[in-house]
């Protein structure tokens, strides 16, 4: 948070260079003025709690549904594999399936930062909705391919259209909420992945019963139906999807001003009108803390995608048939969603992030340790999958929220989160080759690789914690008033001497 001196300049509704709420027009002279915890004046016709509930209803459901659809279309290859995908496309027991998973990540990694720049230029409503229509259409086409080359082509373009989903939605969320209230929203959004895993397993078990309908095997129907649903939903999003607070027509002028003022009191001016360019990318990437943010996420992507892509294959080694395999994949995802929300709530209540990354990471390590050493107790191995899913998918949203909300200003946040997600998803390439058919049924290499990368994430989190703790203490001891203009503070973002990182 900002220093006390910085926060106090927002106590007067007129102060803050127009960022606060003016008495003229916004308030009647005899209206009581209510202040929030940052001492920013609330509009007289509402309260902070009511306004946040209104924003939650207009923002969270849309981005959560969008990412659920995106993640579902991304991981449904794992479900399709159980319904003759490899046999129909002559993939055999080779690494062709792993290669088809890998090619998705090539454009997905390369285009993250350009996508966030375009999102800011076209607005989230337009850009994310068009991207969603694109990956929905590509998923549908994936169900119509006739050979392996066609599958590779569709997987590549799926990565092109999906690259902006995750960083774009996280970036949008960060422009609406203060750091102390963001984790529950981030985790609910991120837990769309858990819901997608659970929903994907249920849907695949149902669609699998369409085997042979109109001459199509079940895997084709998985892609066709899920792709069609995505396209139709995202077409509707063109008209209703939320954008930045400055573009929210469903808020009144004084409500928009209040949202801007409370965020400015929390992290400083964001300069929403500022254009982004390549020079900004180079400037932001010179900060070593930005690099650490990438490694924090990178380390957990390997076990996250390893689980998402190969849990059905692991479950099939427990001698379940295809339908039972899909049904047994649902409970770990469902429990992971509930656990992630508990972790997020405790993190917001305590206004602390670090311990809520390390704790779940230890659960994930315990799960992989069990799978490495236990091979004759199906119940224990199945329980280990719960630990892996719970630990990995509850730590990841805390890591992304912690890093993202510690970035000040539109430009540093847009570039920083795109870097973290883009670099982190290189781990997806590693994950796709971690679990090879030749390593079944014990997958010792895959589990060993996952353990190594989980430890990398934990180590990076510790380094980031030490870095921002040291930086906060250094700024506490430094001279506060260094004569910076408002423009210079905006350009510095979280490098502003008044800024304090959340631990």
From TrEMBL:
InterPro entries attached to this UniProt entry: MFS, MFS_dom, MFS_trans_sf
Domain named Major facilitator superfamily (MFS) profile: which ranges? 59-475
Q: For this UniProt entry, which segments traverse the membrane?
A: 59-77, 97-119, 126-145, 151-174, 186-207, 219-241, 290-310, 330-347, 354-372, 384-403, 415-434, 446-467
Localization in the cell: Membrane
The UniProt keyword set, sorted, is: Membrane, Transmembrane, Transmembrane helix, Transport
Residue numbers spanned by region Disordered = 1-23
Its placement in the membrane is given as: Multi-pass membrane protein
Q: GO cellular component annotations, sorted alphabetically?
A: plasma membrane
Superkingdom in the source lineage? Eukaryota
Stretches of Basic and acidic residues bias are at 1-12
PROSITE patterns from the UniProt entry: MFS (PS50850)
Q: Which GO terms describe its molecular function?
A: transmembrane transporter activity
What SUPFAM superfamilies does the annotation carry? Answer: MFS general substrate transporter
Matching entries from Pfam families are given as: MFS_1
* Protein's name in the database: Major facilitator superfamily (MFS) profile domain-containing protein
> Whose protein is this, by species?
Thyridium curvatum
């Amino acid at each position: 948070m900002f220093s006390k001196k910085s926060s106090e300049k927002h106590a007067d509704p007129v102060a803050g260079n127009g960022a606060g709420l003016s008495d003229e027009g916004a308030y009647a002279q005899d209206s009581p003025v209510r202040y929030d915890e940052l001492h920013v004046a609330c509009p007289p016709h509402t309260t902070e709690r009511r306004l946040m509930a209104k924003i939650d209803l207009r923002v969270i459901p849309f981005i959560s549904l969008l990412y659920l659809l995106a993640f579902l279309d991304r991981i449904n290859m794992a479900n399709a594999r159980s319904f003759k995908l490899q046999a129909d496309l002559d993939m055999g027991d080779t690494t062709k399936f792993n290669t088809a998973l890998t090619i998705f990540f090539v454009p997905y990694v390369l285009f993250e930062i350009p996508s966030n720049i375009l999102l800011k230029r076209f607005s989230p409503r337009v850009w994310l909705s068009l991207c969603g229509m694109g990956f929905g259409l590509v998923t549908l086409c994936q169900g119509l391919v006739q050979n392996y080359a066609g599958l590779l082509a569709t997987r590549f373009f799926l990565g092109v259209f999906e690259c902006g989903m995750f960083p774009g939605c996280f970036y949008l969320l960060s422009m609406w909420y203060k750091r102390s209230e963001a984790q529950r929203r981030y985790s609910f959004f991120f837990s769309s992945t858990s819901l997608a895993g659970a929903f994907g397993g249920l849907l695949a078990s149902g669609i699998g019963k369409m085997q042979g309908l109109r001459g199509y095997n079940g895997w084709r129907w998985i892609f066709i139906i899920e792709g069609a649903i995505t396209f139709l939903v995202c077409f509707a999003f063109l008209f209703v999807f939320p954008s930045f607070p400055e573009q929210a027509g469903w808020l009144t002028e004084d409500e928009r001003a209040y949202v801007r003022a409370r965020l400015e009191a929390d992290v400083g001016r964001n300069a929403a009108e500022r254009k982004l360019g390549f020079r900004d990318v180079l400037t932001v990437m010179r900060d070593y803390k930005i690099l650490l943010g990438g490694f924090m996420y990178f380390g957990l992507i390997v076990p996250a995608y390893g689980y998402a892509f190969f849990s059905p294959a692991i479950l099939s080694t427990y001698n379940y048939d295809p339908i039972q395999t899909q049904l047994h994949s649902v409970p770990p995802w469902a429990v992971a969603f509930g656990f992630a929300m508990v972790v997020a709530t405790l993190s917001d209540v305590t206004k602390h992030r670090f311990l809520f990354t390390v704790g779940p990471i230890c659960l994930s390590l315990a799960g992989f340790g069990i799978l490495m050493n236990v091979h004759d107790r199906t119940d224990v191995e199945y329980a280990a999958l719960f630990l892996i899913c719970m630990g990995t998918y509850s730590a990841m949203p805390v890591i992304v929220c912690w890093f993202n909300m510690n970035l000040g200003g539109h430009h540093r946040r847009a570039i920083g989160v795109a870097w973290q997600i883009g670099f982190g998803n290189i781990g997806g390439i590693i994950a796709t080759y971690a679990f090879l058919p030749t390593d079944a049924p014990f997958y010792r290499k895959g589990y060993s690789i996952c353990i190594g990368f989980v430890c990398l994430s934990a180590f990076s989190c510790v380094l980031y914690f030490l870095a921002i703790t040291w930086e906060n203490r250094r700024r506490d001891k430094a001279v506060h008033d260094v004569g910076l203009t408002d423009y210079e503070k905006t350009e510095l973002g979280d490098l502003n001497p008044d800024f304090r990182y959340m631990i």
